[in-house]
Design goal:
about 300 residues, five-stranded mixed beta sheet, 10 strands, alpha+beta
Length: about 300
């Protein structure tokens, strides 16, 4: 298989990746004693949970104790932990479900989830709320969807600025392209998405400066963040080449620079493994290649960590 074929296969797997969800209405908001039926769906890893809210509001309408709530008032929790709505589903699952990452690129095509997910964590059981918005943990979206749209576009802008040293690419998109990009994200239309995003990813006449990468590190609750499931997001300027050398930057060299205590070796995972799209990432993988072939839809490499031992 050629490199091009391998990259295409990787992108196919990422776009086809999904997680089976079982969504239940919060018992405190359900007027039926023995709870409403669950809503079952196989949902794209690249998509965002708020896109489900209109159909969930319709599905649970007859069970709601407050029939006047609107769909944008809904929020999701996993084991009482409010889930950040601006994180892609795949990232949320990798961070909080407890599933072990897949290895060696193997997969079970029948489930469309990596083999590390073929466990008691599936379906992933989430609770839907329409009341008691956790304002201390989540920003509330609006009825028109502008807050969600702006959060996504701002993330794309930040990634664009890191790659090129300027956000001129995303800022100079035509209104048609901007509308097409957001519609493609909402509807999971790969060809429409690629037609626009490739213009940002391969900006003409602009050398690649940095790799947009965030590392999500599990952290204990503290006075400033007293909630369970707290994460520390580690972010720094990651160059495509190791500083002072012509050697290509790998995920191993980048993590060693960012978190040397967790990644004492540049080549071998000892205390933790990097996880992307539900799979353990080889420490030798070049970050530029990952950015071009395996970034999330906002252009970022959202890297989770699976602790070892």
């Amino acid at each position: 298989m050629t490199v091009r074929q391998q990259n295409t296969s990787l992108q196919d797997a990422i776009w086809e990746g999904s997680v089976p969800l079982e969504i239940r209405l919060s018992p405190a908001e359900c007027r039926v004693y023995d709870q409403a039926d669950s809503y079952l769906i196989q949902y794209s890893r690249l998509s965002y949970l708020p896109f489900l809210l209109p159909r969930l509001r319709a599905f649970f309408a007859s069970f709601l104790t407050n029939p006047d709530v609107e769909s944008h008032e809904g929020w999701f929790a996993y084991e009482d932990l409010p889930l950040k709505w601006h994180y892609p589903l795949g990232l949320l699952y990798d961070l909080f479900s407890g599933a072990q990452p897949a290895h060696d690129g193997s997969s079970n095509r029948g489930d469309r989830s990596p083999p590390g997910q073929q466990s008691s964590t599936l379906p992933w059981r989430l609770t839907l709320h329409f009341g008691d918005w956790p304002a201390d943990q989540l920003v509330q979206p609006d009825a028109e969807g502008k807050v969600l749209h702006d959060a996504f576009i701002n993330s794309v802008k930040e990634a664009d600025f890191l790659r090129n040293g300027t956000a001129k690419g995303i800022m100079s998109l035509s209104k048609h392209d901007s509308t097409q990009l957001w519609a493609a994200v909402q509807e999971q239309q790969r060809s429409s998405y690629d037609a626009v995003f490739q213009k940002l990813l391969y900006a003409q006449g602009t050398p690649l400066r940095h790799i947009p990468m965030k590392v999500y590190l599990p952290s204990s609750p503290s006075a400033s963040a007293p909630f369970s499931g707290h994460l520390r997001i580690v972010q720094s300027l990651v160059t495509p080449f190791v500083h002072g050398a012509k050697e290509a930057q790998t995920i191993g060299t980048a993590l060693h620079a960012l978190l040397p205590a967790l990644f004492p070796s540049r080549r071998t995972p000892i205390l933790a493994k990097p996880v992307l799209h539900g799979a353990a990432v080889p420490m030798s993988a070049h970050v530029e290649g990952l950015m071009r072939e395996a970034a999330y839809l906002d252009g970022w490499l959202h890297v989770g960590l699976a602790m070892m031992g």
